[in-house]
Amino acid sequence: MPLKPFTGSFTQQEALDDNVIAAAATVLKSGRLHRYNTAEGELSKASELEQAYALYQGARFCLACASGGYAMAIALRAAGLKPGETVLTNGFTLAPVPGAIASAGGKSVLVEITADLVIDLEDLERKARSTGARFLLLSNMRGHLVDMDRLSDLVRRHSMILIEDCAHTMGAAWNGRKSGGFGLAGCFSTQTYKHLNSGEGGLLTSDDPDFMARAILLSGSYMLYERHGAAPPAEAFGRIRLETPNMSGRMDNLRAAILLPQLARLENSIDRWNERYLAVEEGLRPVEGLVLPRRPEAERYVGSSIQFRLPGLSRQGAEALVAACKALGVELKWFGAADPVGFTSTHHSWRYVDPQLLPQTDHVLSSLFDMRLPLTFTVEECRHIASIIAHCAHGSSPSVP
Length: 401
Fold this sequence. Notes:
single chain; alpha/beta; Aspartate Aminotransferase, domain 2; Aspartate Aminotransferase, domain 1; 2 domains; 7-stranded mixed β-sheet; 3-stranded antiparallel β-sheet; globular
């Protein structure tokens, strides 16, 4: 009996509820959309969001800004990156990560990844030694956490500054410690396909007052930094307030207002994502030749997407699998494609980064497939999706590329 096609949309997020709409309407009716357009003694919605997210994250300070990519770029600048200075980062990530390094004036040196899609700590050790890099911009790509205890030890031994890209790990944790809390700063995204949805937006967290004072000034606070809700005291801004450039990238009150109610239910959303992830994982696990990334016990993940590999599948076989799934309504992204597709790209297409040899990463990506799991899907629909992938994967014949 032929499989029934799936008819859901992989890009349709949940509708924003009445609480979110009411919060947005209140800001719109006030006309006070700019974060510093406040009445005497009033705390703006952007500042309220900073307070609420700092509390959720367990951080001392938080800055709401224009995007996750912007948060990474000003984090590097606020941390003291010099023009042309090396920044180590994952060979497997999305374009905004090397883009942020380029924006901040740095030079990306890419580190290999493992079959579990995390940064290879042995290659990181080698490149930390050979480059003497002061900075590691760690990408927790597609929600996978490396052994953060081992990584933290490596960073300390090499006196590196760790900045975490947590666009896919908002709410995730390692041994109970939230992603974004292991280094100098954590950078988060509230773009539509992330865990909170404001269309575009970013959050930057840190416990370091001097770093956060520089980041707030860089974001475009003018001399209004005391209006922030989760900022260092005024004295931290001291001398730097007159020598730190304004690189306008603020979040507005409208986006902050629609994020606050979503943040309040984030833990519930994480539970729902993980239900869906487990449903797909259970459906794929029996498929012969299909490999799922290992999820360590120490990791608390957020299953808003799922990845799997089919090692040994030829290029033609991978293209056929994507096409067969698409014909049945399931949208897979394949990281072995020669050209970038939509949001999906690899280091070979980042022409603003010096070409680098990453044989291990290329081998992993050649057989890597990725799929979003929006909360608009039911658990039963996720089981249906898994059955389609399993059916199409069973029809694929692995062969040497």
